[in-house]
Amino acid sequence: MMGHSIGRIVVSSALAVAFSLPASTPASTWKIDPAHSSAQFSVRHLAISTVRGAFSSVNGSVNYDDKDVSKSTIDVTIDVNSVDTRQPDRDKDLKSDKFFDTATYPNITFKSTKVEQAGVGKLKVTGDLTIRGTTKSVVLDVEGPTAPVKDPWGNSRVAASATTKVNRQDYGVKWNAKLDNGGVVVGDDVNIIIDVELVQQVAKAGN
After folding, report:
1. What residues contact 33, with CB distance under 8 A and at least 6 apart?
2. What's the pTM value of the predicted model, to 2 decimals?
3. Residue 114: CA atoms inside 13 Å, Cβ hemisphere, count?
């Protein structure tokens, strides 16, 4: 009888401790830091050189589950008006209806549909990329995320870099002009590199 009583006490105590512990929550939310993030692109010019530019305003969030990356989600918004190719006239042209038409379509967005582990420190992220109102599925090859570090203000930060290639014609960015040799002014393939630094969002007490 005493043995049974002790057993019940041990089991009851274990249950009490278990229920008093917080539930396991491996997923964490990270917000993109626009001041330390950008989306760069490159495209062929006159079929002989490469023009590079970047969008400096990149915002969004990542819900990252380090126990099961397939449960992670990514949501990114790029302000197209932040385009910078170091040539104001060219930037103005890119914002016009010949290219991005920022008056009608001010943002480029990416929303993940699948996240997969692709090796140590690598992810393959499939998602919907929307440019100029047209949405297509693309795959991002991701390096990272890095191990978290603490900044001087106590915030946890990680970083990641993603690459992909798209055909601008698929998104209605169609302007071009032919050259005498049969080539064109602007190439169709656009290489994209996205570098992001993310800050972990900590739930406030009582939430």
Report:
1. 157, 196, 197, 198, 199
2. 0.82
3. 9
